[in-house]
Amino acid sequence: MPRGPIDLHTHSSVSDGTETPTQLIRAALAAGLDTVAITDHDSTAGWNEAITAAEGTGLQVIRGIELSTRHEWRSVHLLGYLFDPNDAELVAETGRTRDDRLGRAERMVARLAEDFDITWDDVLAQSGGVTIGRPHIADALVARGVVANRSAAFESILHFSGGYYLPHEAPTVLDGVRMITAAGGAAVLAHPATRGREAVVDERSLARLVEAGLVGLEVGHRENTPEGRERLLELAAEFDLVTTGSSDYHGEGKPNRLAENTTTPEALDRIIAATSGVEPVRS
Ligand code: AMP
Ligand code: FE
Ligand code: FE
Ligand code: ZN
Question: Does the pTM of the predicted model rise above 0.85?
Answer without folding.
Answer: yes
